[in-house]
Design brief:
Length: 162
């Protein structure tokens, strides 16, 4: 490995068995940072290997099976933690076993959507206790400039205690 190899695009060596970057192939025994490789060496792993290994012991507290049809048309079954389900627009994200990583799944492709939707925690409806951001802007402007307008008076009537 040369001193300025990073400038000329030379990357770290690849393991001949698994293809992981960061392998040491110049020594007689090949050493690889990938814990699932036959040439694995813990001294090369660093934090990546330990966090990678630890992530496989994740077990969901409330397991839920999601039947998913991926973009290639393959049927996949994901075991997720029901407590980690979140809905965001047309997707549902959850922490999946065994890695514990959060994945996002399109609602259109979930085969058991009704079951999954029932497991998604319902958030309480937001209580409108005050002005909206636009109303705050109008109220703040007129308070700062000590002026009035029909819209300002309408908002003041809506929120008399402001």
């Amino acid at each position: 490995m040369g001193f300025l190899d990073f400038l000329f695009g030379k990357s770290k060596a690849l393991c001949p068995a698994c293809g992981t970057k960061g392998a040491r192939t110049s020594e007689v025994p090949i050493r690889c940072p990938n814990p699932s490789c036959q040439y694995y060496d813990a001294t090369l792993g660093g934090s990546w290997a330990t966090s990678f290994r630890r992530s496989f012991d994740y077990s969901p507290a409330k397991p839920l099976a999601i039947h998913y049809n991926n973009f290639q048309g393959q049927q996949k079954i994901f075991t997720v933690d029901a407590g980690s389900l979140r809905r965001r627009k047309n997707h549902i994200s959850a922490c999946v076993a065994p890695t514990g990583l959060r994945i996002s799944l399109s609602r259109d492709r979930i085969q058991n959507l009704r079951e999954v939707e029932q497991a998604v925690p319902r958030l309480a409806e937001p209580v409108s206790s005050g002005p909206s951001p636009r109303e705050w802007q109008v109220l703040g402007y007129h308070r700062k400039h000590k002026t009035t307008s029909p819209l300002y008076e309408q908002i003041r009537a809506k929120y008399p205690n402001w």
